[in-house]
Structures are given as structure tokens and as C-alpha cells.
Design a protein that fits this description.
CATH topology: TIM Barrel
Number of strands: 9
Mean pLDDT: 95
CATH class: Alpha Beta
Helix content: 25-40%
Strand order of the largest sheet: 3-1-2-4-5-6-7-8-9
Distance between the termini: 25 Å
Order of helices and strands: EEEHEHEEHEHEHEH
CATH superfamily: Aldolase class I
Largest sheet: 9 strands, mixed
CATH architecture: Alpha-Beta Barrel
Radius of gyration: 17 Å
Length: about 220
């Protein structure tokens, strides 16, 4: 049984698949409280559904790409069978996770699922000791690392991780994203260009499309 906060069709707003029509399956619950979190409504509530019921809802919405997110989706044991079943039905499956300790391992995610890990910057309020660095090192070229930057300090912290290379997998793409309402995309872009940093600048496309909405996007 899964505790599901919402299932809906939208335009995928982040990751290398940004811009594609997709179905988002948002699971309820999170063991973190990041300062820049924009889905705190997913900390509680939702419906208890069998995996098969979730699959039926996804099928009714008619998109090949499915994003499973939260909250923290890897807190729920049945998230793994859900990912497996989505792959078996021919979906392109993306998992967005905090990559922090206390949830199921990144290594437990079924092969074929694109793992997008939000590496928690200092501005999140989380200590770096909470990050599953060993799990992150196991990511591959099909996965992604995302750094949400609230300010210059966050940017420099992420920049040094990328430059140093010892704590990040060498072939996994990295993106830097400005925290919505806290750092302008133009400023973050300028820093990336000034430093010649080989990372992707990412904005939350869904918020640009639907700025007046905070759910179902």
C-alpha cells in the first residue's frame, strides 16, 4: 500500500526531461524540512492506494514519462515495486529524491529508473552529514545531481564539490538551480559563466508556465 498525495498530468519542470508531458506521482511524507521546500503540503494527507491502483491512474492520463517524487518517495517500501511496474509497462521513469540518510538506498532503485538527486546545499538547513555520499557515488551517466542555490554561499559550496570531484560520480551530469524567490536565475548564470563551470543552469519551468499556482504543476 502506498500513501499518495496526488497524481496528475503536467509539463515536467526540471531535469534533462524538462518540457516533456508527464504524469507526476507524488507520495506523501518526508523526513526532512528543507528551508526552500515548495511542496510542504506533501508532508501529510493523501490516499492509501495499492500499486495497481496507482498504475491504473497513471495509465488513464496517457503519458510515457512518469516522475515519482514527494515528499521523499524512498521512505515508502512500496515505492520500489511501483517503479518496477512502471518500467515494465514501458514508461520512462524518473525518481526525484533527496539522497539523504534515513530513506531507502539509492542503490535499491530498479535499474532503468533515472535518479535525480537533490544534493542539499547549506541553505536547505540540512547538515552535509545527512547526505548519502556513498549512494551518490554509485550514480551513473543516466542519473542527475541537482544543487538548489539560495545564495552565493550555496553556489560556492556546490562549485567546490563539482571542481573537487571526489564526492561526486565523475560521469553524472550536474545542474544548478536558483531557489525560487531567493536567487535570480540571471545572477546564478553570471556566476557559472564567470567561473567557467561545466554545469547546467536549470530553472523551474513549471513555475514559469503557471506562476499563479502552487499545486498540480
Amino acid at each position: 500500500m502506498l500513501l499518495v498525495n496526488e497524481v496528475y498530468r503536467t509539463i515536467l519542470g526540471e531535469s534533462r526531461d524538462a518540457g516533456l508531458p508527464c504524469v507526476i506521482v507524488r507520495l506523501t511524507g518526508c523526513h526532512r524540512r528543507c528551508r526552500y521546500c515548495d511542496t510542504s503540503y506533501a508532508f501529510q494527507g493523501g490516499r492509501r492506494l495499492q500499486v495497481e491502483e496507482v498504475l491504473d491512474e497513471v495509465a488513464s492520463l496517457g503519458c510515457r514519462t512518469v516522475l515519482v517524487t514527494g515528499g521523499e518517495p524512498l521512505l515508502q517500501q512500496e515505492a520500489l515495486p511501483l517503479l518496477e511496474r512502471l518500467l515494465a509497462r514501458g514508461h520512462h521513469v524518473v525518481l526525484e529524491t533527496s539522497g539523504t540518510l534515513g530513506a531507502r538506498s539509492l542503490a535499491a532503485v530498479p535499474p532503468g529508473v533515472r535518479r535525480v538527486v537533490d544534493v542539499k546545499t547549506p541553505g536547505s538547513g540540512l547538515d552535509s552529514a545527512e547526505i548519502d555520499w556513498d549512494g551518490i557515488l554509485g550514480l551513473g551517466p543516466a542519473d542527475e545531481l541537482k544543487f538548489v542555490c539560495c545564495d552565493r554561499r550555496d553556489y560556492e559550496w556546490a562549485r567546490e564539490l563539482v571542481r573537487d570531484g571526489r564526492r561526486l560520480p565523475p560521469r553524472t551530469p550536474c545542474s544548478f538551480s536558483p531557489a525560487h524567490g531567493q536567487l535570480s536565475p540571471a545572477r546564478l548564470a553570471a556566476w557559472i559563466l564567470e567561473d567557467g563551470l561545466e554545469v547546467r543552469l536549470q530553472i523551474q519551468l513549471h513555475k514559469a508556465i503557471w506562476p499563479e499556482r502552487d499545486r498540480g504543476i
